[in-house]
Amino acid sequence: MSTQRGPSGPSNVLGKLTSNLMGLRRCRRNGGCRVDCEHDRTDDERLPWETDAYGGWGGHEYHGTDPGTDRTPVVFVHGNQRDACDWEAHSEFFRERGYCGDALWAITFGSGSPSHDEMAAQLDAFVANVRDRTGASSVAVVGHSLGVTGTRYWLHRRDRYDWVETVVGLAGANHGTVLSSMAAKTGLTTGTYKMSHFLREDYDELSDHPLAELNTDETPGDIDYYTIRGTEDPLFWNCLESPALEGATNIAVTADHDGVRSSLLSLERIFEWCSGQKPYNLRTLSAAAGERPERERT
Description:
- Helices cover 37% and strands 13% of the residues.
- By secondary structure, it is α/β, with parallel strands linked by helices.
- The chain has a single domain (10-291), classed as Alpha/Beta hydrolase fold, catalytic domain (Rossmann fold).
- A seven-stranded mixed sheet has the order 1-3-2-4-5-6-7, sandwiched between helices.
- α4 (116-134) packs across α5 (146-158).
- The longest helix is centred in the first third of the chain and has 20 residues, at 10-29.
């Protein structure tokens, strides 16, 4: 993967990085939540099963819809120092287009900055429960930032390729970052920077590196892979194309790191890739209006 400098000048990149780090620290002070929700990370009251390792939300009771679904369930996976609250707008967008609650799920990892092994273990348990509750044989997984390599690592380590039919990676450091290399070389490899070594941009120069192993085959299994990167993402300074995967459908949007997750264009593409339908298809919107929960119609 070629190294490319981003379109912004050095001073602009520094300003964006500073803003990003300030946001990261703010989320960390809130236990890893962007919107300051009142739920502890391992709170399971928004899930229809008990857990003490992770939290999250999902299911018909949480969303207030009828039980059951004929859709492939979607599992949303957050990034560093974030939680399931990142995906509330995505859930609403999907429900407005015919998705019931049993098709919409989001995990909150037990740690705001989980290791890849922690993500693999918790995702395995979470997706197993989703499959058990819905009766679905496979799910679609949408990950942002650290959640992208976390999802890929889980699939690889647990050999769960037959559990997943679609992977959407948003601003994921699939080929590492220059900034992670710098952090690792200066000893920033704990706490919020726990993933620095794993996400080094120079991983292919090191022996037995886990990212090198992961990238031996970038799109394995009978899975449809999609990625979105932001042209204004400061985390990919000098490595702009890191999020792209060989064999995937890769697109770019004019957005920063968080905008890749939250922009309307990204929402539209995520819906289309997971559902196989256009988000503004009149038939889809008409059917969804009739299925909308009572609390949303009144």
